[in-house]
Amino acid sequence: MQRGEMLAACLLCWSCSLCVVTAIRRADMFPYGTLSGDLILAEGDDETSRVLSLPKPLYFYASHFTQLYVATNGIISAQDLPMEKQYVDDGFPTDFPVVAPFLADIDTSGGRGQIYYRVTETPSVLNRVAQEVHRGFPDAKFTPTYAVVATWEHVAPYEEQSRTTGPSNKVNTFQAVIGYDETDSYVLFLYPEGGLNFFGTRPKESYNVEIELPARVGFSRGEVPYLIFSRTEGPHYSVTSDEQSVKNLYQVGNTGIPGVWLFHTGNRYSFNNIVPASIGGLLATLPPGALSLDTTTPEYTEFEEYTDNSFDPDNQEEEDDYPLTGGDPEFQPAPAGGDHLGTPPPASPNAPSSPSEESGPQVSYGSKHDGQIARFITDPVYSQDVPPAGPKGQQPEVPLEVVDIYPPYNNEPNLSPGGHVISVDEGDVDDIETGVIQYTTENKETCARFQQQCSQNAICSDYATGYCCHCQSGFYGNGRHCLPEGAPQRVSGKMSGTVTVGSTPVELNNIDLHAYVVVGDGRAYTAISEVPEPVGWALMPLAPIGELFGWLFALELPNSQAGFKITGAEFTRRAEVIFYPGNQRLSITQTGRGLDDHNHLTVDTVVSGSVPFLPPGAEVTMDPFKETYQYYPSVATSTSVREYSVVSAERGSESFSFQLKQNITYRDCRHDNRATTLETLQITMERVFVMYVKEERILRYAITNKISPVGAEITRPELVNPCYAGTHDCDTTAQCIPQEGQAFQCQCATGYRGDGRNCYDIDECTESLISCGAHAQCVNLPGSHRCQCQSGYELGFDGRTCVDIDECSSSPCHISARCINGLGSFQCQCQPGFYGDGFYCSQQGAQTVRPKSQCEQHRDSLQSGEGGRPSVGAFIPQCDSDGRYRTLQCHGSTGHCWCVDSRGQERAGTRTPPGTAPRDCDRPDEPERPKTHCEHHRDSVQTTSPEGYPIAGVFVPQCDDNGQYIPLQCHGSTGYCWCVQNNGQEIAGTRTVPGETPTNCDNPVEPERPKTHCEHHRDSVQTTSPEGYPIVGAYVPQCDANGQYRPLQCHGSSGHCWCVDSTGQERAGTRTPPGTPTVDCDRPDEPERPKTQCEYHRDSAQATSPEGYPIPGVYVPQCDANGQYSPLQCHGSTGHCWCVDSIGQEREGTRTSPGAPPTDCDKPDEPERPKTHCEHHRDSVQTTSPEGYPIVGAYVPQCDDNGQYRPQQCHGSSGHCWCVDSTGQERAGTRTPPGTPSVDCDRPDEPARPKTHCEQHRDSVQTTSPEGYPLLGAFVPQCDDNGQYTSQQCYSSTGQCWCVDARGEERDGTRTGPGTPPVDCDRPVEPERPKTHCEHHRDSVQTTSPEGYPIVGAYVPQCDDNGQYRPQQCHGSSGHCWCVDSTGQERAGTRTPPGTPSVDCDRPDEPARPKTHCEQHRDSVQTTSPEGYPLLGAFVPQCDDNGQYTSQQCYSSTGQCWCVDARGEERDGTRTGPGTPPVDCDRPVEPERPKTHCEQHRDSVQTTSPEGYPIVGVFVPQCDSNGQYRSQQCHGSTGHCWCVDGRGQERAGTRTPPGTAPRDCDRPDEPARPKTHCEQHRDSVQTTSPEGYPLLGAFVPQCDDNGQYTSQQCYSSTGQCWCVDARGEERDGTRTGPGTPPVDCDRPVPVAPTQRPESVCERWKASLIEHYGGKPESQQYVPQCDPDGEFSPVQCYGETTYCWCVDQDGREVPGTRSHSAVKPACLPSVAPPTVRPLPRPSVTPPTNTDITLLYAQGQKIGALPLKGTKLDASESKTLLTLHGSIVVGIAYDCKENRVYWTDLSARTINRASMEPGAEPEILINTNLVSPEGLAVDVKRRRMFWVDSNPDMIETANLDGSGRRTLFDTDLVNPRAIIVVSSTGTLYWTDWNREAPKIESSTVDGQNRKVVVSDGIGLPNALTYDSSSGQVCWADAGTKRLECVSPDGSGRKVIHSSLNYPFSMVYYKNHFYYTDWRRDGVIAVSKDSSQFTDEYLPDQRSHLYGIAIATSQCL
């Protein structure tokens, strides 16, 4: 029986004989929980805490340790733990130091328990540890200085869900306490009553074996060094051995108290093994009511002085030599019988089921004896039983360390009783209650689910316990909120609360608070508005209100960070201010609510309490001061005392002070293992300025803040870098970057551009720097942007993506309609039986007239217009007969047309300009290419107002055919031109004014001088809105050639001009209105006289908006040189003028309309006469719109001075003039068009003669609309004075002129176009002969469509001067010519095709012979349509001179030729395809043989349509002269060629694309290799339809001769080319458009960081993670890679401190390994001097060895010789160094002495001879993804390998040829593979975690079967025992090495406790395997089943494959 069992038994017997002692209760455990300062271990099955750094070293055994780790599985370790599989199921000893109160497979996932831990020096805890040690070791002189408390509360065993119906309700609670001083350590294990309910756990990988391992309790030193290079097991001590001994833990103890176990565990000088406590004198009974009072001395060295304790006198002697230490006075126990602190504390919902650590210094133990309860030092508060918290009971508070859920702001708990802010010292930080709801991992949160919680400028990273957000480069913050570095920050919010000033309470009701912080130098300005006067003066000392913003955005000195980087934008600050000497108290609560849409921080402030009264007008001054902030998880605190001076007229100068206590709570993400040690920073407030502005009622604070480490004093300010001093001259939107000495650099903040001293906002939207995604548009913000959803969309849950608004949820449709939601819109449809547009539905038959639809209502509302008249130029929608919107809508005024949906909304991309054919709106939209930035810009410009009116002056960018900006852009309205960059940004200095030659934008821009202030000002003016619309009227300053402000500045829109100084500031009194002479800006300013009333009036007129834009239509009065009103005033916009008196009042009757002569304002006013009819008419005409804009084109009658109609009236817009009578009615026949002499209206009317035909024609033309607006473009005939048509008529719109006869009919041949001299129409007309037949024919041909478009291809006969048919006629479109007779009929046999000499038509016809059959056939072919258009593709037979069929006929369209007989019938077998020599048709016809299969196939192909047109692209097979398929077939249309067999079937792999040399089809086929991925891709493309027609536009990949993708792929349809990788995936950035030279795909292409190929480091990392099952343990090695994929210079084993340096290739730098807490200092990518440039890889074999083990280790293959069966480590060496490789599988060919291996990094299979100097060669480098296990069949000269990514097994010859796939089905994770050459059998493992197995087959893939599938887990390693003929495997899951016969019999276990095997070989009754836990080669004896040897390479990293190399084949 072991010592622990004997001790337990003795204790049990002793306790029974002494008394009945109950186990300790939960309340008797050491205090734990977050109230006691505990950290909480993350939930999970195998979690390890972050390193717990010890303040002083701890001695465990005889070794000292400075750090501890707490693990889920019931242990505490002094070094980082391996994964649980390596220890949790094993007994003692362990390989690492362990304190194990309950070592078992524990699982806290899903909230099943918590694990708390802390290091503490709290006196109450140390006192109790000292008491327990003194009781168990009476002779020990032990005074603990520190204690480590770890508590496992309600933890559960790990259970596989598949084995049980649900989780067990058995949970355990236990505790371990380590107390230590400078020399000794003691450990307490506490097991409370009812705390142990399970006593062991099942192994995870027991599989079908039903076993349960009892928990292990005890200690293990771990491995210790042995000799120099070896390690051996250290001492260990076990308390338990079986399940019963575990059950005894809470029933007995070695201290006399059941459940309490004490051990002496270490000594500084000498220690052999663990010493348990003695069991004598353990119980003492106190008199009832006895109570111990603690001492108060904090120092242990004086304990001997304190002998006054309260132990029973009988026990006094025993206890006298043991001193008691006291706790803090604040936590002294209450007197006997009294309450602790008055009353017992209420139960807290967040309190753990244990007493608070500081609530009392002692804990009672109970035992039942003589009816009394024997107690040690009873605390009356906690003597009652505390029930354990169950699942529904009280839960312990979650820790401060990680924060995820923020509390509601209106429901935050107080920080301390009474609502006051507590003061925090370093010693009592455990008391802080942050008020923050903390994170738990009950449902682990990951980036995949919660990435939207991060800022859009942050990245999300997953960690073991959750996720964290980290700001991207260029931004700062806590990851949830990120701001651009260097940019100034704005803060806005509200302030409220009640402040009592003196005795007067004043309420602040949501007054505004704003702050502005210049981050570059730490200046923070705070302004609080609308502050009532008494409070405003009194709050001046309250600078801490604004200090929050100074702390958040302080100027950072080295090794510090401002508050915003910690808190982000969501936090709560609570501060308490106590004023002295009056003791007034004011609490301040400031809550950060986040960032608004403009990236402004939102902070609400609440104040409450009293402040001292300050006299009105007082001034407050505060000296600079420093304040120390202490940082803890989720909280920052500070305490300070401030002094300030108050100077007032009443009291003079006085000094006061106040004390400030504050804490700031925030979300703190602790998942990323940041250090939890306390940190302090110091903030220095150098300049504090406070003031209250009575008139504005604004309270202002201005503070300059710097943050630095505590004590970072500046001894010589003149040496401080300006960046840290804040004296730099960087822009406020720039970051100051310190450099050496006084040097610094200014760098514009993220989102700004410039030289750092002048920075300007980058418009991310217009520069296409941001993509907002679907249904969103970008809105620029200063330094940033935001994405705004389009109409019909709203932001989704993630705050970034725009999602459709379900309009139907608001029931917009009629009650009798149903709503159909769509993307961005919705539709209403009336229900069956109802009629309407969905917005209004009525029952059918209920009324005779259906209600108006939405379209009709829309249309009618626009047609009615203002006052019942439609608005000119307004768009009127068109509705169909059912009232629905017509799908095609056109604007009658502009001529634009577009398609609309059912709601009348325009369909994007369908608008066409006037003169172009409109879109077919019934055709479905074709997929469009995405719009370019230029096209988005162009299409977003609003050229029409919402009412449909054109917006004049809008700049519309010009894009080329590819959608890119044209280099030269011009503004159509202003005439300015300029050059632009690719993104449309104007190139400075290229703008030219109208009339000036524009800049040549193709010339390179010369180097620019720096922009001046004027140029910066000019270029910063926003002339376009965020949507791209021009902002009309923006003022743009004018700069001269040197970039200086021109002295005279004018506003282009308003016409105002003024003088400016050199800074561009307006010189007062120099502004002149439009139309007045400008001031001479070069003259010095004269003394200014006071402004007159007119000047005040003029200058007060708001002609520009607050943003500086002109307000059109504003009336600005005109003043003369003396400032008096000019007598005549005119409105610049409307043109009205009127007279005013001296005070500017209008004189009645003087107003004149535009175009009328203004009144003479210098004449005295005459008595006003009543208005005449003309004046009423004139004044009633509406010349301006209700908004004041002029209405163009309105007719305004003209009245004379007496108010009568002027005899002649003219329309100002159209130019027509006419005479009117006295009533204003037009006199008939007097209207004249513009440009013609007007009628003399003063001549009396002659007796009216009847109107002539010309006059009736002229007057019937409608030249004005019913509303009086001119109708442009109407033709008005011109009549002479007698009313006859003028002989020459001209059309003013087109410029054409022609002659007419007396009836106005056009005379033929007289029309001339614009710009050509017109015909002299007065020359006598020769007698007109009647038209000839030819002329009638010619003139009847329709050459233009009804819409005026030319009809291409119409045949127009040619007539000579006499109108007769020309003998030779030619078709202008087709080029055919022929002869005609006098009637125009074609003369047979005279037609010639284009390009051939035409027939001489003047030769007389020979006597016509009758047409032959051929000629009739030929002439019957219809070559033109009835309309005269040529019909292309018709076959016209060829006849010889005698009219007989030529023996050979050819089809010009298809190129085919054939022979015909005398009847024109085709002779079988004579047809030849295009490009092949035609058959000799003159050879006699041989007897016809039957058609072959090829000929039948060929002749069955339909090459012409039923109408006789050729069918383009049909494949016609080619047959040889014997009718057999030609061995090579080619497609005439696509150009592809391929080989076929005798049946015409394509031979696989022979197809070649056009332009490449075709295959030699006569060569015999080589053994077919499997199709490659490229060939499968190519052959799967469907290029022909089921009917055999080619499918145009399909992309067919191009493969090389080996079937691999050619590096460059081109798309023949689009002309685009791009580069691809080996998998055919396009390489980003290589695509080129048609006409541009393609990229050289053989040159390496720079790849964007986010899309580069995986590096060696990343490939290695991915491979290891896969082997770890996707979740590496915390101690397992995973390569650390930097963001670029390179090896990080420091590499470590998981989270341990076992680290080393590597070079850029991942090779370890010798001598850099470190086991300490400080990682080695490694330089990135720099090798030490001893490392030379990389050598070429060559073999260095070991010498004088017969048997060598070859092992793969990352980037090398090592050689380990064997001496017999022993590992000869002294002769080991590196066989081959392979930089950049990851060698996994390895095999050896004994016949040729070659080593073969798989390379996971390069995805290759390689080999090398083992001769010295041999170099490796690549055998296979295609279509490998994750090649792992490899085997060589030396007999058959083949190799076999597994690929674990595509899950397949392949084979090839040893030179890489003859590759083929053996298996690619029913495989999940194939790993190891071996081949037994003697039997020709293949074996492999598949560690499918759901169904692992070992299979076998023959080497040719036959007879596949499963060998083993039961009782295995992760069968990694596989080998063959040739002596027994068995297959053996090592399982990393079951930890067993087993063997079995090939038939599945004879299975046996060789070894049952392996570590983590990976690969294995067998030799001479020994198994040698590589182990991932030991990182070495382990030898196991088959006979003894014991480990016999071990080899650990100097370089520690995982070993992969292993093989055995022999000098001769075994």
Q: Record the strand order, biggest sheet.
A: 25-26-27-37-36-33-34-35-29-30-31
Low-pLDDT runs of 5+ residues are 1-20, 280-442, 1645-1650, 1725-1734
Q: What is the count of β-strands?
A: 96
Q: Outline, from the CA principal axes?
A: flat
Major beta sheet summary: 11 strands, mixed, barrel
Report, as a whole number of angstroms, the end-to-end distance: 50 Å
How would you characterize this protein structure?
- By secondary structure, the protein is mostly beta strands.
- 8% of the residues lie in helices and 25% in strands.
- It has 20 helices and 96 strands.
- An eleven-stranded mixed barrel has the order 25-26-27-37-36-33-34-35-29-30-31.
- A hairpin with a 5-residue loop joins β89 and β90.
- It is flat, with a radius of gyration of 50 Å.
Would you spell out the secondary-structure blueprint of this structure?
Layout: H1 3-18, E1 39-40, E2 52-60, E3 63-71, E4 75-77, E5 98-103, E6 106-107, E7 114-120, H2 123-136, E8 146-157, E9 172-180, E10 184-190, E11 200-201, E12 213-214, E13 216-220, E14 223-226, E15 230-233, E16 236-238, H3 243-247, E17 260-267, E18 275-276, H4 316-320, E19 368-369, E20 372-373, H5 447-450, E21 458-462, E22 467-471, E23 475-477, E24 482-484, E25 489-501, E26 504-518, E27 523-528, H6 533-538, H7 544-552, E28 555-556, H8 564-567, E29 570-580, E30 585-595, E31 601-611, E32 619-622, E33 625-632, E34 635-648, E35 652-666, E36 679-693, E37 698-709, H9 722-725, E38 734-738, E39 744-748, E40 752-754, E41 759-761, E42 776-781, E43 784-789, E44 793-795, E45 802-804, E46 817-822, E47 825-830, E48 834-836, E49 841-843, H10 854-864, E50 888-890, E51 897-899, H11 933-940, E52 968-970, E53 977-979, H12 1013-1020, E54 1048-1050, E55 1057-1059, H13 1093-1100, E56 1128-1130, E57 1137-1139, H14 1173-1180, E58 1208-1210, E59 1217-1219, H15 1253-1260, E60 1288-1290, E61 1297-1299, H16 1333-1340, E62 1368-1370, E63 1377-1379, H17 1413-1420, ...
Parallel strand pairs: 25-31, 28-37
Antiparallel strand pairs: 1-7, 2-3, 3-4, 4-5, 5-13, 6-8, 7-8, 8-9, 9-10, 10-17, 11-12, 13-16, 14-15, 17-18, 19-20, 21-22, 23-24, 25-26, 26-27, 27-37, 29-30, 29-35, 30-31, 32-34, 33-34, 33-36, 34-35, 36-37, 38-39, 40-41, 42-43, 44-45, 46-47, 48-49, 50-51, 52-53, 54-55, 56-57, 58-59, 60-61, ...
